Amino acid sequence: MIELTRRGRVAVMTMAHGKANALDIELCNAIIRRFAELSAAEASAAEAVVVSGQGGIFSAGVDLVRATAGGADYLRELLPVLSQAFAAVFFHPKPVVAAINGHAIAGGCVLACAADRRLMGHNGRIGVTELLVGVPFPAAAFEIMRFVAAPHRFAEIMFGAATYAPDAAQTLGLVDEIVESDLIDRAVAAAEQLAALSPQAFALTKQQTRQSVQERLARDGARVDAAVHEIWLRPDTLARMRDYVAQTLKN
């Protein structure tokens, strides 16, 4: 599900979960578990992390086929671990680089944006399409997107629900660098550059830069997520999801 290899001081995590690395309960739990392992003392030899996907897709976001089949009971279990997976990447104390090997859609875009740096090849599109599906953003996902997106384009990104080619994504803040070839090699080099900094200084600086996000989540996260979950679990929302899935598969 997640293949973990080492490139010197860098751990390379490759999501290999179905054709699209869709975010389901199992993949979210695997992400949480892998990042917890890399935070542990016995894994301290890994000084940075590269996250990528298999084939031409980084992640297509939440597995809507499974979500609509499982209905409200499945979503009650999925939504908390989805937010925990995003937070595991975003608040990881070591450098995290996303090697966006292809499409990064909806939750897949959020997962990429949780990294400290985002490198993308020329193939694929990236963006958050949640409002097209008819669902709001969990608090952690919303705050990650607010943290990363160019402030004057944030509303456009969220309400427009569009996906962007790499060049356009770079101007929006979703992508830091476009890589011509050897994406993993370049991502490992970027991770090594961050790993060369003092680990303690890096971790504290990362914590400081994310402090406002942490404070908003502590203050408002539970309240926001209660409202978010209520909308996700509504029968009319599930119907919209089914319509979206049917239309997407048709196209």
Please tell me about this protein's structure:
This protein has helices spanning 25-39, 64-90, 107-113, 130-133, 139-148, 154-160, 166-172, 183-195, 199-209, 211-233, 235-250, and strands at residues 2-7, 10-15, 48-53, 57-59, 96-100, 103-105, 117-120, 126-127, 177-178. By secondary structure, it is α/β, with parallel strands linked by helices. Strands 1-2-3-5-7-9 form a six-stranded mixed sheet, with helices on both faces. β1 and β2 (10-15) form a beta hairpin. α2 (64-90) crosses α5 (139-148) and α3 crosses α5 (139-148). The longest helix is centred in the first third of the chain and has 27 residues, at 64-90. The model has no long low-confidence stretch (mean pLDDT 95).
Quick recap of the structure?
With 251 residues, the chain is α/β, with parallel strands linked by helices. The chain has helices at 25-39, 64-90, 107-113, 130-133, 139-148, 154-160, 166-172, 183-195, 199-209, 211-233, 235-250, and strands spanning 2-7, 10-15, 48-53, 57-59, 96-100, 103-105, 117-120, 126-127, 177-178.
